[in-house]
């Protein structure tokens, strides 16, 4: 298993004093060819670990993915998790809440999709959208943010008791890189379909949104639910970092195949003929 060393992963741990201070294009002196080989090995190892997680049925993992438009949330899911047994994977992508969802508490749609024991859950965007996109989309006012933040912090504080382990990752790209990727989407039919009018609005307000996210990440970073800010301008590095962080979470669970007595013996099976 060829995950990145702790020193590299810990370099991505959020600094609450300066969440976005590091270069989103840094590569740690690593090479793309090395990353591709390592990721192939990691995917197979992650699949084995997820099957052990499922077999034990006690703990659950929740991967939270956030980042600006075009940061690569969809891409990292495809490239890192494409070897995971889909029976043990629960993936949810959250867009703007519809009219029915807005009739409920803002956390309702997220709570009901938290992974059950044995599962790897993935939130492509998450309950943090209730503190960011809901504000930018005019669904709430700024005065509602403090109370919502406390609700999110309370939710995360309760996860350990459920043996639900969060891994929160923010994919960081610069405004120039976001523009380059938007241009690419405009020019390619296989990517153009993903464009929304809101993408242009988000690009125009990039700095304002990043400042808001900077404050939000700092306020919601904790020992039990830390944030990792991944440099995401090199897709190959982004994928390797994410896979390595996920591998480290599995390592911490020390998963073994469950040693349970079988419900019948070999003699029972032979005697059934």
TrEMBL record:
Coiled-coil stretches: none
InterPro entries in alphabetical order: P-loop_NTPase, PPK2-related
Species in which this protein is naturally found: Pseudomonas aestuarii
PANTHER family cross-referenced by the UniProt entry: POLYPHOSPHATE:AMP PHOSPHOTRANSFERASE (PTHR34383:SF3), POLYPHOSPHATE:AMP PHOSPHOTRANSFERASE-RELATED (PTHR34383)
Upper lineage: Bacteria, Pseudomonadati, Pseudomonadota, Gammaproteobacteria, Pseudomonadales
First and last residue of the signal peptide: none
UniProt name for this protein: Polyphosphate kinase-2-related domain-containing protein
Positions of the Polyphosphate kinase-2-related domain: 33-246
Pfam families (UniProt xref): PPK2
